[in-house]
Amino acid sequence: MTNASRIATPDIARALALSGVVAMNYHAYLNRSEAIRPLHPSVWQDIFNPNTGFLTTRFAALFVLVAGVSLSLFVEKTSRQRQKIQLTIFRRGFFLLVVGYCVEWIWHGTILFYYGAYFLLATFFIFRTTRTLLVTAFLAVVAGSALQAWRLSEAFDGHRTAWLEPRSISTPRDFLIRVFASYTHPLLPWFAFICAGILLGRHLGSIALWRAKVATSALAVTGCAYLLSHLVHDFIEPTTQWNVALRSLASTNPSSRGILYSITTCGVAICVFLLVSIWCEKRSLDRLKNILQRIGQTTLTIYIAHVLFYNGIVNRLHWVKPTGIDTALVLSGVFLCLAAALSLCWTRFMGQGPLERLYRLLGG
After folding, report:
1. pLDDT of amino acid 269
2. N or C terminus of the chain: which is more exposed, having fewer CB within 10 Å?
């Protein structure tokens, strides 16, 4: 694998992830209850369902995986001392946390808020051994799934655990709960995806030697996890507190944060990343690859822009009405085309995107 294609892979995977995130966000925000609980769901509505669909959180997980890869590449290419590298990652994480907190006021559940938390925690793990990262990922998955299973079992007995789902961040406790255990992309279990990305990034230079083996293993494990989840939900009825907890642990539903959910989501993200790496090696596609790479280098700016675009077009001007998934996909397609064109023009004449420039200026 050439150096150019190795560097291009994270950027192109990031561009792909962003496209999916925009589409899923627009569908969830525009159609709301109809997106989550349609009366007569079609196949596409099932696939794009923000709570239970196959595509929900898949693109966000790829985003997080690529973040881990990028952290490893940053460590590899820089000549700074270890403490300075950790300080830079910490500062960048703090920047994303603050920006995400501001965006949260108009775009609830933004991944930027959590993205910053991932970076802050990654500061203490970026130089850890492979074994430590694997154990950390395992503990994050188990803790996240166990907490959610406990909540469901408590609800089965009529006990309320609403305090673990703060609607707003008004106290330090709300902040910690939101970051570690609540809402859309909490550290438990999502930090496991960062760990997986760091491990991939450490060996990206020799990807051709292990890609087939890792992809095969990821596909096999993901397939077995889906099969096991299907069997558990077919044969175990939610009639007891224990059964409810067990079904949660074996669920692939994002809201369950079950062990099998984390396994399947990480497996899919790894497979997609490896497919992108194969595509990046095709010399006949160098022009398209360069275009996508430049778009992938401005994803922070495009992400913020998609929030502002939606609020302007839908909430302020009322040009778009919630008429179904097709409207959401058209809206996201229009935005992505505009964003891609502007991104290519900007990077051609100005280099880094405006928010990417600020990110590096304040983050180091």
Report:
1. 97
2. C
